[in-house]
Amino acid sequence: MKPVIGIDLGTTFSLTAVLQAGRPQVLANAVGELLTPSAVSIDDDDTVLVGAPARARATTHPARTATAFKRDMGTDRKYTLGGRTFTPQELSALVLGSLKKDAEAALGMEIEEAVVTVPAYFGDAQRQATRDAGAIAGLKVERIINEPTAAALAYGLHERHREMRAVVIDLGGGTFDVTVLEILEGVVEIQSSSGDTKLGGEDFDYAIAELIAKEIETKQKVNVRDEPKAWARLKEAAEQAKKRLTDLESTRVALYDLPLPDKRTVHLEMPLGRGQVDACWAPLLERLKGPINRALRDASLSPSQIDEVLLVGGSTRMPIIAKVMAQHFGRLPLRTLPPDEAIAMGAAVQAGLKAGDAALGDMIVTDVAPFSLGVGSAKKMGRQIVSGLFSPILERGTVIPASREEIFATIEDGQSAITFDVYQGEHSLVRDNKKLGEYTIEGLEPLPAGEHKFRVRFTYDLNGILEVDMTPMKTNKTETLVIEGAPGRLTKKQLEEARAAMSRLKFHPRDALPNATLLARADALFVELTGNDRDDLGHALGQFRLALESQDDKMIGSYRDQLTMAVNRLRR
Ligand code: AMP
Questions:
Q1: At 556, is the secondary structure helix, strand, or coil?
Q2: What is the extent of the structural domain holding 386?
């Protein structure tokens, strides 16, 4: 039987996992890493690079590289890379395709199906776009599940046969999401979610970079932020220091030949202690509380009513995060799974449940609709017609799959057509909600107001994707609305075209990927360095390029090792 894999399709990183002997196992990619950067770049000879080599090119070839396209899923934004245009779905498809190939190599088996995770706040258009991305990549997205639900599955909360409430704290590189869940007999109910799309690990790096910049300013009387190259190196050094301080109480930041705005260069060595950085992060730690309190308030819960606190996302590795959460909730958070792997692991558990993996027993996990869905309607009040009202049909919090129906009628005498506008949201006026699509039924025979009645049925499938059926009660002929009007939504024909276009792209040979990745990383580092370091790297880089041209495997291997060592040494 072909395995179903779990995929965490992230904004900065993606990863895959599969259930093996009842346990989720994260799979390594072609360059031997668990995390594949969600990045796509087009090489100078029009070859597509995905993952680590693409991400390394983001600084050296920004116009040919795309990152963070997950933020644009479900919109009609286009990316132009080296003369080619891509939709966010196509870029995601390239990442999915790369994950699929790597997983196939790791498992030695063909893979056709996957469970893919999305943020709980993803609406219909974003979920559809995610499924389309899978289709373009030749991967059937068997299920789409919410990221916090996946985290709960990874921690096995569904196996505890009792009612429990959990909060998932997801702090990634650039975003912060808080989700309150209730788990009752295998049904995972998202009670509320909140977040800050502009708060993540990068802000913690930035705060440390500010500390270093102040030190330089005091001593050198210049603002190092005015020299973009120096500022970029400061931020990089800050991130490295932040990561070291996860394991150590204190560290040193060393920056040599740092170019200053007044053309001087400076050597800097600065000790950094955990207490000092924790203090400079105080405003950020305070900002975490807003979304947490909002999510709790929306779920009508106090912190003490939460049974488990789950930490996911790379930035929850920082010890201060666990400390702040322990204080806030009055209990120690669960942090036993690697925070950047938990979501993919949960997706693998769901994939196992889907495939009926015997090791998991007959557990069922179900999610709930994160948004209300309904249609725009009008009401006659006296002689006046008030339009633009939102009539919810399927309310948020409904356990999915679900199907609900409402009856609507014409409101004018002789009305010859009726349009159903489909919306997602919680506001009483449609203009405040998100439009998903529309459908018009024409050619109604002239009858008095209210005589034409329509059954409108909303069906929410397990993926949180909507189907709308409209049945005029006079004819009983059901029309199904395929939501295509929404921005970025692809028609069947466009999907096929996108798939064909993808298959025409030229891809970098996978066995050469480690070399391409190293080259791109070394190139990016070369841009950053100056002086002797730059010369050293340039030398190792030149020799590796010559070795590649020689096509002599032994020589390539030996110079690859040398260049890898140089890159690792100089990145510090
Ligand atoms: P994610 O998007 O969930 O992969 O999270 C990436 C973020 O986690 C980045 O901002 C990283 O700097 C941060 N991160 C990764 N490892 C560590 C660590 N050991 N300590 C602190 N932050 C980390």
A1: helix
A2: 373-481
Residue of 12, 249, 315 best suited for mutating to test ligand 1, as the one with most atoms within 8 Å of CB: 315
Q: How far apart are CA 51 and CA 521, in angstroms?
A: 12
Instruction: Please indicate, yes or no, if residue 458 is contained in any of the structural domains.
Output: yes
Q: Return the structure tokens found at 552.
A: 């002599």
Atom of ligand 1 nearest to the CA of 339: 3
Residue whose CA is at the smallest distance from ligand 1 atom 15? 314
Atom of ligand 1 nearest to the CA of 170: 3
Q: Which atom from ligand 1 is nearest to the alpha carbon of 245?
A: 20
Specify if 419 maps to a domain: yes
Ligand 1 centroid, distance to 169 Cα (angstroms):
14
* R_g (Cα) of the chain, nearest Å: 27
Q: Which atom of ligand 1 is nearest to the CA of 200?
A: 10
User: For every residue of 259-280, which 3-state class applies, written as one string?
Assistant: ECCCCCEEEEEEEEEHHHHHHH
For ligand 1, atom 4: residue with the closest CA: 314
Each residue's pLDDT, cut to its tens digit, for the chain (572 residues) gives 788 999 999 999 999 999 998 899 999 999 899 999 999 999 988 899 999 999 999 888 999 999 999 999 999 999 999 889 999 999 999 999 999 999 999 999 999 999 999 998 888 889 999 999 999 999 999 999 999 999 999 998 877 767 899 999 999 988 999 999 998 877 888 888 889 988 999 999 999 999 999 999 999 999 999 998 889 889 989 999 999 999 999 999 999 888 899 999 999 999 999 999 999 999 999 999 999 999 999 899 999 999 999 999 999 999 999 999 999 999 999 999 999 999 999 999 999 887 776 666 555 667 777 788 999 998 888 888 899 999 999 988 787 788 999 999 999 999 999 999 999 998 999 999 988 888 889 999 999 999 999 999 998 877 777 888 999 998 888 887 765 545 556 778 888 898 898 888 888 877 788 898 899 899 988 988 888 889 999 999 999 999 988 888 899 999 999 999 999 888 76
Q: Rounded CA gap, 309 and 298, in Å?
A: 17
Catalytic residue numbers?
Answer: 8, 70, 147, 170
Q: How far apart are CA 346 and CA 26, in angstroms?
A: 11
Q: Is residue 434 part of a domain?
A: yes
The reply to whether 383 falls in a domain is yes
* Structural tokens at position 131: 């499924």
CA-closest residue to ligand 1 atom 12: 201
The pTM assigned to this predicted structure is 0.84
* Residue 392: CATH number of its domain: 2.60.34.10
Q: Residue 339 Cα, ligand 1 centroid: separation in angstroms?
A: 9
**Closest approach atom of ligand 1 to CA 171:** 3
Provide residues with CB under 6 Å of ligand 1: 10, 12-13, 172-173, 200-202, 239, 242-243, 246, 313-315, 317-318, 340
Largest interatomic CA distance in the chain: 87
Compute the distance from residue 242 Cα to the ligand 1 centre, in Å. 9
Nearest CA owner, ligand 1 atom 23: 315
Count structural domains, the chain: 1
- Nearest Cα to 308, choosing from 292, 282, 331? 331
Protein residue whose Cα sits closest to atom 17 of ligand 1: 243
CA distance 465 to 422: 13
Taking CA atoms only, the protein residue closest to ligand 1 atom 18 is 243
- What is the distance in angstroms between the CA of the first residue and the CA of the last residue of the chain? 46
